[in-house]
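Whiteboard transcription, Tuesday session. T.W. wrote the structure tokens on the left side:
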């Protein structure tokens, strides 16, 4: 297995720059992972493929306004930081974060950056403490809110929702980059984008059909922004992400399996949460655990029976995950079909249902 096995040519014009409106009106490619058969539908048709007794498990994480744009202290050089996760191991009070920074050559340990809100006065400052090992552009940064603000208040005053870098022209409502069922507590650097297609009405219709709905939480971090650079995927380092699987989820999965229903993951982050919580032959409760699970061809799936997902970046760990679930051959054929049919790709794009 080589990283190039998961590469494909993605035309720029197929990278979605805005979400579908309404959310569930996007297209849906349905893939039978056993036969490779493909159907073309719309996302609101997902209800036709779900059955009474099925359980959907979604990631309810909410995206932090984690993109901070500022200037180097006492200077005019622009700088940018992307908050990835709090590092309580460095500071129990939560003022130290792991960040991606740009430009890296100017943001060495000791560098300070001022971030501004609506006024000309800085509302937040960040001091680079050290490099993060095995991370291109990664830094540990200590933040200090200004003018009596709490840290969260300062981040909200200065920060922006961090749309992926391939979305270059969207100026609409940033709430469209949040799922309708997201918790109010903001923990992630990116959205679990498979869930963006659900509306409250569609969720209620699924429940009325007899499908159950549960949520896990995985705090989406660094690996969302990375492709696999090593040609040997075994050498790729997955950074850890915090996740939570409740007793309610464990009980719902057990009841669904015992009754002959399917566990359907809404997105790859839900897959990684559920499969990370599988230990010693059973699903276990996890609260604040960390995972660096790297699912790729050859990996086993113990919990998930079907998957709702988007179309992913070439050469990414997510391409490897869906290829592990449905075989590389079926996935690459489906992607070729999607490109030929002019599906919209990546975060704001169309969806797949792999069953």
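and on the right, the sequence the group agreed on:
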């Amino acid at each position: 297995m080589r990283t190039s096995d998961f590469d494909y040519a993605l035309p720029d014009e197929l990278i979605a720059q805005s979400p579908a409106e309404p959310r569930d009106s996007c297209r849906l490619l349905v893939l039978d992972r056993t036969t490779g058969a493909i159907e073309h539908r719309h996302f609101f048709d997902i209800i036709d493929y779900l059955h009474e007794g099925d359980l959907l498990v979604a990631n309810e994480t909410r995206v932090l306004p984690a993109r901070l744009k500022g200037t180097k202290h006492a200077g005019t050089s622009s700088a940018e930081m992307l908050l990835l996760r709090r590092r309580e191991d460095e500071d129990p009070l939560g003022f130290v974060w792991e960040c991606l920074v740009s430009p890296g050559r100017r943001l060495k340990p000791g560098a300070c950056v001022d971030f501004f809100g609506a006024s000309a006065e800085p509302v937040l400052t960040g001091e680079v403490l050290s490099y993060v090992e095995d991370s291109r552009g990664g830094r540990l940064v200590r933040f200090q809110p200004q003018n009596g603000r709490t840290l969260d208040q300062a981040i909200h005053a200065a920060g922006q929702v961090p749309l992926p870098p391939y979305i270059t022209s969207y100026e609409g409502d940033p709430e469209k980059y949040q799922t309708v069922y997201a918790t109010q507590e903001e923990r992630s650097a990116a959205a679990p984008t498979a869930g963006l297609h659900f509306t409250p009405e569609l969720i209620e219709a699924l429940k009325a059909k007899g499908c159950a709905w549960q949520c896990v939480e995985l705090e989406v971090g660094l690996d969302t922004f990375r492709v696999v650079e090593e040609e040997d995927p075994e050498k790729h380092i997955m950074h850890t992400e915090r996740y939570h699987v409740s007793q309610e989820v464990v009980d719902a999965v057990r009841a669904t399996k015992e009754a002959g229903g399917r566990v359907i993951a809404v997105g790859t982050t839900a897959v990684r949460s559920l499969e990370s919580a599988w230990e010693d032959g059973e699903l276990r409760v996890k609260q604040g655990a960390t995972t660096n699970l790297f699912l790729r061809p050859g990996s086993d799936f113990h919990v998930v029976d079907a998957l709702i997902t988007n179309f992913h970046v070439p050469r990414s760990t997510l391409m490897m995950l869906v290829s592990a679930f449905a075989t590389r051959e079926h996935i690459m054929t489906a992607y070729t079909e999607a490109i030929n049919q002019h599906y919209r790709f990546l975060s704001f794009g169309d969806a797949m249902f792999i069953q």
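Someone added at the bottom: The longest helix spans residues 328-340.
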